[in-house]
Design brief:
The two termini are 16 Å apart. The strands form 4 sheets. A two-stranded antiparallel ribbon has the order 1-2. Strands 3-4 form a two-stranded antiparallel ribbon. Helix 1 runs parallel beside helix 2. The chain contains 5 helices and 8 strands, in the order E-E-E-E-H-E-H-E-H-H-E-E-H. It is globular and about 40 Å long. By secondary structure, it is of the alpha+beta class. It has a single domain, classed as Ribonuclease H-like superfamily/Ribonuclease H (Nucleotidyltransferase, domain 5), CATH 3.30.420.
Length: 164
């Protein structure tokens, strides 16, 4: 993701996770320099006993990015989450994540100029909130015909549209 800073354009990495059953998206972190130390902090946040997003999950399906270090994967394994590494060049096995990235880029990120890291954080949160509210409308037959995330999406009180 390109962001304009005082030193000119700078590329940021947005690390996100999707819960496949509900398609709920969580931003784990945004950084200009992603390395093993950053991933260690992300791993501690994900596996936090109180509000870690991997609590109660069984699998972490991920691509072959070198950011998923052994230390990160060991942290995840320590809380009982099994790491599943996708085969190389198989975007169809990661379709939900690929579709989310495409939707975000097409709907907002390529149409706006982001000034600073804070604007990127706020913009991504608005997009995710709007995505959760939009997902609340379709009916999921596998969930006893309830609207997906209806209660959580509407209780947040957020606007249904991301300002793009």
């Amino acid at each position: 993701m390109e962001v304009w800073t005082r030193r000119g354009p700078q590329r940021f990495i947005v690390l996100f996770f999707i819960e496949l059953s509900t398609r709920k998206v969580e931003i784990a972190g945004i950084a200009s320099v992603a390395n093993g130390l950053w991933m260690s902090q992300i791993g501690r946040n994900l596996t936090d006993a109180v509000d870690g997003i991997l609590n109660g999950k069984r699998y972490l399906i991920h691509d072959r990015d070198p950011l998923f270090t052994t230390e990160f994967l060991d942290m995840v394994a320590d809380v009982g989450v099994q790491s599943v590494k996708l085969p190389p060049r198989s975007p169809n096995l990661n379709a939900h994540a690929e579709r989310f990235v495409r939707s975000v880029k097409e709907s907002c990120l390529q149409r706006m100029i982001w000034f600073g890291e804070l604007s990127l954080h706020k913009g991504m949160q608005r997009i995710i909130t709007a995505n959760a509210i939009i997902r609340a409308w379709p009916i999921d037959s596998s969930a006893q015909n309830r609207a997906i995330l209806e209660k959580q999406a509407w209780s947040s009180g957020a606007s249904a549209w991301a300002a793009c």
